[in-house]
Prior knowledge:
alpha/beta, four-stranded mixed β-sheet, three-stranded parallel β-sheet, 12 helices, about 35% helix
Amino acid sequence: GALPGRIVQSLRKAGSRNPVFVLDEIDKIGADFRGDPSAALLEVLDPEQNGTFSDHYLDVPFDLSRVLFLTTANLMDPIPPALADRMEVIRIPGYTEEEKRVIAQHHILPRLLKAHGLKRSQMLITRPALERVIRRYTREAGVRNLERELAAICRKAARRVAEGRRQGIRVTPAALHRFLGPERIPPDEAHRKPEVGVAMGLAWTEAGGETLYVEATRMKGGKGLALTGQLGDVMKESAQAALSYVRSRARRLGIDPKVFAKTDLHLHVPEGATPKDGPSAGVTMATALVSCLSRRPVRADLAMTGEITLRGRVLAVGGIKEKMLAAHRLGIREVIIPATNRKDLEDLPKDIRKAMRFRFVRRLSQVLKIALAETPKA
């Protein structure tokens, strides 16, 4: 198999010295006994070195400096740091529900109808049904799974047409159960009543924004703080920082300092099978702890996100657009976000910005004043 390498072969196939190379899913790259592909890519992607790229078959330097390399990835963390340092990162946010609906109506459905031999008069998916498929049968940043679900509907509709059905098939929300089975994603249910020790946070995941409830409770004992819910190291450190802040300002928060010596505290983030990490739940954890210890309920119509410090400062976090979309989807119309994230709201659609109220905060005392009833200044 004495052949030039894949890069030189692709250049020959393209017939150009300045083509575009797309390296898909570069975060899935792996190393084993056969070698480490990322080591070879270090030279290829470095503009200071790829002018003298050496292919083992040609055994002469080849200039790759005129080639445009594009890579795609779902997550940045698995990419080796040395390789990521040679790239300019362009973050593309996930689609909103409205964008998914428009893409499905104008692009996906016409293509699927043609592929399954169906005419528009033979099958119609109503707008409410399409929105329910997006919300209850898929959870993703893109539209790949949405296309699979719509293809399943088209296949069953094509079978009914082949069996001799002459009337057009109208797919409504009530009919989705017959086409796709039970809903795969349960509806997000917000706590409609304020509860002590329960605060709603917002998280960013690979599938987009998600709501994240933090529950705090107290028990007799003196072992300190217990953390459950499959939390990552960064999230555990945020919980410790939140507890230290609450203990250091106990009297100003209306909490008896002696309670910590005879009380066990437990923080839990539901959906324990799902790994969670990141610092953006810091304000949510602190709010849940203060609510639990002071017996003041947290507003049920409010969500929050932000990192905290031991001095009570609220720092910026990422994924603001996805988090706001998750809050809007749940029906939350008021959100607390760090003041330094104000600029990130420009990416939100105008109709969502108008429908929601954003509370910009710089300190945790502002968060507690908004989220808790009759909160003393801290």
